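Checklist before submission:
- one chain only
- standard amino acids only
- sequence pasted in full

Submission:
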Amino acid sequence: MHGLDLNALEIFRTVVAEGGVSRAAARLNRVQSNVSTRIRQLEDRLGTPLFVRQGRGLTLTPDGHLLLGYADRLLRLSEEAADALASDRPRGVLRLGAMESTAAARLPDILARYHDAHPDVDMALETGTAAAVLERLRGHEVEAALVAEPIPFRDLEARPVFTESLVLVAPEDYPPLDDPRALDGRTVIAFEDGCAYRAHLEGWLRDGGVRPGGFMAVSSYLAIFACVAAGTGYAVVPASVLAMVSAKGRFRRHPLPGPLAAIRTLLVWRAGPLSPRLAALRDLMPALPTP
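Returned file contents:
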């Protein structure tokens, strides 16, 4: 089988996004029969139906869902290649993934300066755990990512840009936190598995012989602080995020020692040439020494 036609993939993706052929045709400025024909040709070429047709509605088949993921990746790669070759001037859409803490505490000023310097670039920022963001990067869903070290993949390049220190926060009625054993049997409030800071905390607890009483997974730092203040359990947060919170006296704080006092955040991208828009972002980032 020869390579797939990008125009056909664009039509397919638009039909999915618009929920039907007629709306896709209007968006693409094509006649409806042309869109229907291109979809049938794509199905014939692949040898499998992509939609289940129910009256006027269309529902993706399992193969259609599979193709949609590939279509997104191929079309984004095509856009990246065209942008990279067309001009040295940054333009297009820069899709960036980041941990929530980095997006909240570190990026606002940098993105504002980037927008002022490169108004032809639209920014799409996605947040998630370090593991989730790296998967999006490797799947070509984002062009670069900001995650805490370490990076377990050899097909990625990285540059240290920030240094974070972790702070243990616990309810006011907890005993002093200088001895990790005071945490034995108590609940950990953290992001879901895949969070780099959660992994660092779990390693620190293991080294101190501490057994958590359980984990409560939450999806935001606001939820973490609310649960800790309510006495549910303890957590670790970057000092840069803690500095943004007005909650003095509502919980105990204890800076963590050793390696946890200097965890680097890395700007990570897939190995290979950088687009002008990503190179411009890298130039705006702080440059930390690389060991």
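Reviewer check: Residues 166-261 form a domain with the D-Maltodextrin-Binding Protein; domain 2 fold (CATH 3.40.190.10).
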